[in-house]
Amino acid sequence: MRSFIGLIAMVVLLATACKKDRPYNDSLAGSWKEVLSVDGFSGRAIPIADDSARILDLKNDKTFEFLLHGTVVAFGVYDTLSKISVLSNAMAAFISFGQNSALQDLLGQSQTSLRYSIYKDTLSLSFDAYDAGGKVYKRLK
């Protein structure tokens, strides 16, 4: 009987010790500030100046705005999809901005379908190809 009570006490202790809430928001929706640009060929990370204020605002209704110094310079709709990545040969998450040439220029990418990943408060966007560059954003809200 003592071992049974000890086992129950251990289970209760483990159950209450586990953190049940997630401290990070893994949703794509939100405002993201560009903090780093990664060159594809060299892999060199280029920090973005704090005063550049390049904000990607992804909304829950699948619309987006790209702001530069508080001014909207590109906007439209986005969609998310899963497909096999050329890099990993496994399923990966992608975001597609459609045929928005203004956004293509701002992101420095020739296509507007980009592989994305979110870790804590960091969003990484990259072209799904060998030696391709990318952008790194930090969540604002």
Describe this structure in words.
- By secondary structure, this protein is of the alpha+beta class.
- It has helices at residues 2-17, 101-107; strands spanning 30-38, 45-47, 54-58, 63-68, 71-77, 79-84, 91-96, 113-119, 122-126, 134-139.
- It has a single domain (29-139), classed as Lipocalin.
- A hairpin with a 4-residue loop joins strand 3 (54-58) and strand 4 (63-68).
- The relative contact order is 0.19.
Spell out the blueprint of helices and strands.
Layout lengths: L1 H16 L12 E9 L6 E3 L6 E5 L4 E6 L2 E7 L1 E6 L6 E6 L4 H7 L5 E7 L2 E5 L7 E6 L2
Quick description:
Helix content is 16%, strand content 43%.
Count, helices: 2
- CATH domain class name: Mainly Beta
State which percent range the strand residues make up. 35-45%
What is the makeup of the main sheet? 10 strands, antiparallel
Query: Structural class of the helix and strand makeup?
Result: alpha+beta
Please give the alpha-carbon distance between the first and last residues. 52 Å
Average of pLDDT? 78
Number of distinct beta strands: 10
